[in-house]
Amino acid sequence: xxxxxxxxxxxxxxxxxxxxxxxxxxxxxxxxxxxxxxxxxxxxxxxxxxxxxxxxxxxxxxxxxxxxxxxxxxxxxxxxxxxxxxxxxxxxxxxxxxxxxxxxxxxxxxxxxxxxxxxxxxxxxxxxxxxxxxxxxxxxxxxxxxxxxxxxxxxxxxxxxxxxxxxxxxxxxxxxxxxxxxxxxxxxxxxxxxxxxxxxxxxxxxxxxxxxxxxxxxxxxxxxxxxxxxxxxxxxxxxxxxxxxxxxxxxxxxxxxxxxxxxxxxxxxxxxxxxxxxxxxxxxxxxxxxxxxxxxxxxxxxxxxxxxxxxxxxxxxxxxxxxxxxxxxx
Amino acid sequence: xxxxxxxxxxxxxxxxxxxxxxxxxxxxxxxxxxxxxxxxxxxxxxxxxxxxxxxxxxxxxxxxxxxxxxxxxxxxxxxxxxxxxxxxxxxxxxxxxxxxxxxxxxxxxxxxxxxxxxxxxxxxxxxxxxxxxxxxxxxxxxxxxxxxxxxxxxxxxxxxxxxxxxxxxxxxxxxxxxxxxxxxxxxxxxxxxxxxxxxxxxxxxxxxxxxxxxxxxxxxxxxxxxxxxxxxxxxxxxxxxxxxxxxxxxxxxxxxxxxxxxxxxxxxxxxxxxxxxxxxxxxxxxxxxxxxxxxxxxxxxxxxxxxxxxxxxxxxxxxxxxxxxxxxxx
Lengths: 330, 330
Prior knowledge:
- Two copies of one chain form a homodimer.
- Chain A is α/β, with parallel strands linked by helices.
- Chain A has a single domain, classed as Alpha-Beta Complex (Spore Coat Polysaccharide Biosynthesis Protein SpsA, Chain A).
- In chain A, 38% of the residues lie in helices and 18% in strands.
- The first copy, chain A, contains eight helices and 13 strands.
- In chain A, the strands form three sheets. An eight-stranded mixed β-sheet of chain A has the order 3-2-1-4-10-6-11-13.
- In chain A, helix 2 (75-85) links the parallel strand 1 and strand 2 (91-98).
- The longest helix of chain A has 53 residues, at 11-63.
- Chain A is elongated and about 100 Å long.
- Chain A binds chain B through residues 152, 157, 160-161, 164-165, 168, 176-178, 194, 198, 202-207, 262, 264-265, 268-270, 311-321, 323-330, and chain B through 152, 157, 160-161, 164-165, 168, 176-178, 194, 198, 202-207, 262, 264-265, 268-270, 311-321, 323-330.
- Chains A, B: It is a single-pass type II membrane protein.
- Chains A, B: Pfam families: Glyco_transf_64.
- Chains A, B: The chain crosses the membrane at residues 20-42.
- Chains A, B: Keywords: Disulfide bond, Glycoprotein, Glycosyltransferase, Manganese, Membrane, Metal-binding, Signal-anchor, Transferase, Transmembrane, Transmembrane helix.
């Protein structure tokens, strides 16, 4: 038979239960009300805010880049260059890869000369390795990386333009130093610059690599670099060289396109001679170029094929520095 | 009860049926055999052949371009230019848009001076219209169109390079003559070249159009052009001008990108002064440039907005003509 709630045995118990259930109901209503009150505010207030914050962050992440500069035995040049690079438009942060093992970073001096336009992070390394700069640094927040050698100065104009070009070719290494490999009849590859014979595809020269010591590339490639065959790391460590060639192999393999896009710099300078350290850089070693040819052939073995592709596209900035730099006789 | 086939009434009838069914079975087996015999041959022989033919045709369609050259009152220049352009690498066919109404095409002379490297088709027009060259010609077989004015000579080197660039930017107009529009505080647009003020986006100049009188573009845009608002055709006919500006609006609207990619020509020549006809081309009319500003504003009305986008990318050929044209002081 149907027993209505209020007809539970015992009047006292009935009233108690009634009170209890009323309390429960009221509590539930309050909770519901609270939730309802919260919901619109999340939608109307917090969502837009969240969107705005995300948008600012993501705009920042898309519209700015992180400079990664590895340094060894040229702190005077580093500091000179930091004063220049810290003020480049669209720079988000600087990561200095400190290969001066055991030496203190100039953090005190850096801070005493603040404030600085952007955060600069000094990453102390434990071993002096060329490939230290190719770590997937957790401080990296931007999609784009600008990698510079610690003896290279590129003008802000060049960098601003090259960054805008990278944004149109985000899959590729957009930079200022083109190099190429050539095939020889023996099947052995050789590495070189423009003084080396043209690969022979029509008129003019071709390049198949853009060096990462003065270039923009997608930060995702640093993560990608961590997943390469051990033999690649061994090669770079053995030669203390060729990390840039390896990167070009990686990018070419990944995209199926030429790994790089060459932007002709207006103002690029090598400050090597200006250092007080007397240290003159790896590329002065006698075996440097031979090593790089060696690396090309080793990498072809490791990757089981030659993924590098040729390009002859040279990009310059329309109407800059000369507003009529595209003028023709017509 | 079960009655086996062979127990049909009448031995004579039985034998006849037996023969009949045997014949049917044999015929069916023959047909089946024939089909089986045909099947592999379609797969093994014809398919690869078909693929090879298709591949040749499609390779041809993708790896070559059609030159469309409109001509009016400058047949001497046309013939001079045809001798040059007929031999450009990767040229598939020439379509001459004959705006000399009522005048015979020089077909006899052309044939008498054969053979020619590629087919040349003369399309007689009924009315002398600037937009005649923007028809979707049935003779067009390639994906790429090279459109040239009948007084413009561009070197084979430039064309070969620009064609290879177009293949990397097939959605855009890849050519040798950049122009721009600028906004003014009144909201009225103006048209011009580099002597006009820069649009003011950072350093240097920008272009927002690439003229089609010396450019590569996708043949699909000709078909697309047939589907524009009537007002566009009216505007072009009214001014006998601006078909190229209209094309840039079309491409920009379609891609959401800058309509063109500028390739800096090494050797581009205007042969106007060389004509015996005395005819010196539309751009000498006093109102020519004013008309073009007028057209920009009209097109913004027609398309209900300004679709043109700026670019400052200038492309040159790496290592050509000077094998060290990318050398820097570093």
